[in-house]
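# nightly structure sweep
# worker-07 picked up a monomer target from the shared queue
# config: single-sequence mode, recycle default, output format = structure tokens
# input follows
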Amino acid sequence: MKRIMLTVAYDGSAYSGFQEQDNAPTIEGEVNRCLSELLGEEVRVAGGSRTDAGVHALCNVAVFDTETRIPGEKICYALNQRLPEDIRIRESREVHAGFHPRHCESRKTYEYRIVNDRFPIPTKRLYAYFTYVPLDEKRMAEAAAYLIGEHDFKSFCSAGSQVLSTVRTIYDIQVEREGEEIAIRVTGNGFLYNMVRIIAGTLIEAGKGLWEPGHMEEIIAARDRGAAGPTAPACGLMLVKYEFV
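# output follows
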């Protein structure tokens, strides 16, 4: 028995998230199905980040155990021949038997993209949130700076999440505009359910001028989901970096 780690990229538009579900297409479900066919054994992968429906990834991580004699680094080539074209394994390699992506220290970077223009751009509709309301990216960046560090992010966690602690650390958060697009890039040691999308929705409210950037301190202190902004749509979110430290 050996353990294999996969680096998985996907367009999440057609899927109900990463984690396998009984009655809906998921990234994990497709990977499990194709791996089981390829290896001739029942395979169940364990993912590092359980991204939501419609969320994309360049580098999610998953592990599985197998008896196959296929070298770990070759599995990605064979698996990509079976997977649908909106899912690709960018790398596969053998790791030690005790390795699990959710049980070791890591840094994840998510990027949320916004098209801020008079009209939507059709080619970006699946990969960015559109708003015609003018956004001030400098106000957004100023508000975002209050999130850096270790905080209780309960205000940025959707109701119903079952976690032991809502304390997380954000190492860096950047808000940058290039033409009609604004990118919010957040790096942290872990994220709560819908946390990045709620951060994005809250920063959009600041960008519209609905509140001053310093109000972010009050939102954090409230520890109340109702204090933060709306949850931004899933289409604008992508997991762009996954590092083990």
